Amino acid sequence: MGKIIAGIGTSHVPSIGVVYDQGRTQEPDWKPLFDAYEPVKDWLKEIKPDVAIVVYNDHGGDFFFDKYPTFAVGAADIYPVGDEGWGRRPLPDFPGDADFSWHLCNELVYNEFDITVCQEMAVEHGFMVPMHLCWDHHPDWPVKVVPVAVNVIQHPLPTALRCWKLGQALRKAVESYPKDTKVVILGTGGMSHQLNGARFGYLNSDFDRDFLDKIETDPMALTELTHQQIMEDAGAEAVELIMWLTMRGALDGAPLRQVHRNYYAPMTTGMGLIALEEAV
Amino acid sequence: MAKQLDSSRPIEDTRIFDAEQTRLGYRLNKFAMSLVKPENRDAFLADEEAALSASDLTEQEKQLIRDRDWRAIMDEHGGNIYMIMKIGAVIGAGLYQIGAHQRGETFEEFLATRNAAGAK
Q: Strand pairing partners for A263?
C-alpha cells in the first residue's frame, strides 16, 4: 500500500540554483543555507522514499497567465528541466511514475479536487531547488517525483484552508494505492519576501519563526490566515507559504517527530526548512 | 467566508497581482514570457527594436522596456516580477538590480540594507 512517511517544508529561492550550479555553496554567506540540508539529505538516504510529491508554484517556467491552473498535477514518466529565461540548468530530467500519478489524479477528482492533469510538464526553480537541496543526483535522481503546481501568483489564489485540504486528499489518495510505495511530500516556497514595489526586500523573521513553530504544532491556526494577513505581515510574495499547508495536511493525524529545522534570512527571502517524520 | 483580499487595507508600496493588474500587464508579461525561448532571447539581443516591433506591445510599453523602467513597469503597468525578470535576464539585470530600482536605490545602497549580501 502507499504510505506517506515524511514531509518537508522548504523555501525555493532561485538564486540558490544559480549558486549551486556555479559551485559556490561553501562561500561564507551561502554555507549556512546549504549545510542546513546535509542532515536532511542523510536522513532521506536512510528512509529511502520511492516517490516525492513536490508542491510548488510555476513562475513562468511552463505556465503563463493565458491559462494558469489553480492546481495542476504531473502525470508523466519524465519531467524535463525547464528554461525560465536563463537557459537550461545542468540537472538531469526528473523521473516520474505515471501510474502512481494517474492514481492520485483519479482519487483527487473523485474526492472533489478538480485538478488539471498534465501529461507534459517542464519543471522550474520552484520545483528543482528543493529537489537538489534534498537529494544528490549523480548520475540520476534517486526518487521518482509528482509535481503539484499551485497558483500562488495570480489572485484569486486558493485559500490556505483549501491547500491544507488538498494535502488531506493527497494522503487519502496515496493510502489507497495498491502497490507498496513510500512517499515524502515537500511543501515549498516563501518564507517572508516581497519582490514588487518600493517594499521590495521586506522580510519578517519573527513571522517566519512563528510559522515554523506552528506548521509543526498548530497548523490549523495557519489555515485561518487570509492572503491579506500573510501579505501584510510577511510580504506580497510570502503567500507561497500556503503550499506548506498542503505538505502538513498530508501528515494530518499522524504523530510526528521533527527531524531537522533551520532558518536563515541573508538577502530578500526568509529561507526556512523543516523536516517532519511520521513517528510510527 | 473570510475575505482573502481587503481593498480597505491597502499595503504600502505594494501591488497585489490581481485581476486588475494581470489584465493591465498582459501584453508586457506575455512579451517577457516569450523570452523563455532561446531563439526569442537571441532575436531580442540581436535587434531589440525589431523584437519590440514584432510584438503586440503598445508604444508606451515598448518605451518602458527601452528605458528599463522596472519601477513603472511594476507599479503602474501590471508587470509581474516573475515574468519581468525574464527581460532582465536577457539584458543582464538581475532580480536585485530590478528590486533596487523599484526601491529608488542604487544596487550598492540596496545591498547595504541586507543581512548577508554575499548571498546573492
A: A272
**Which among A219, A230, A227 has a CA at the least distance from the CA of A254?**
A219
Give the CATH fold of the B19-91 domain: Protocatechuate 4,5-dioxygenase; Chain A (1.10.700)
Q: Which residue from A minimizes the CA distance to B7?
A: A228
Write out chain B residues lying below 8 Å of A64, CB-based: 29-30, 33, 83
Q: Are strands A78-79 and A94-95 parallel, antiparallel or unpaired?
A: antiparallel
ipTM greater than cut 0.90: yes
Report the 10 Å Cβ neighbour count for B57. 18
Q: Residue A222 is inside which H or E element, if any? A: helix A219-223
Is there a contact between A67 and A47 (Cβ–Cβ < 8 Å)?
Answer: no
Chain B residues close to A224, C-beta within 8 Å: 2
Is A193 tagged catalytic? yes
Task: Enumerate the domain spans of chain A.
Answer: 2-278
Does A224 contact B2 at a Cβ distance shorter than 8 Å? Answer: yes
Angle, CA A268 vertex, CA A262 and CA A15 arms, to 5° = 80
User: What is the separation of C-alpha B78 from the centre of its chain, rounded to a whole number of angstroms?
Assistant: 9
List, for residues A40-70, the tens digit of each pLDDT value.
999 999 999 999 999 999 999 999 999 999 9
Q: Do the Cβ atoms of B116 and A266 come within 8 Å?
A: yes
Decide if A260 is catalytic.
Answer: no
- For residues A244 and A181, what is the distance between their CA atoms, to the nearest angstrom? 22
- The grid cell for B103 is 526601491
Of A61, A156, A201, the CB nearest to B99: A201
Burial degree of A10 (CB within 10 A; 0-12, 13-18, 19+): buried
The top-level CATH class assigned to A2-278 is alpha beta
Mean pLDDT of the residues in chain A: 97
Measure the CA–CA gap between A205 and A223, rounded to whole angstroms: 20
CB contact under 8 A, A196 and B115: no
Q: Please tell me the predicted confidence (pLDDT) of residue B10.
A: 95
Average pLDDT value for residue range A124-138:
97
Contact A231 B26 (CB under 8 A): no
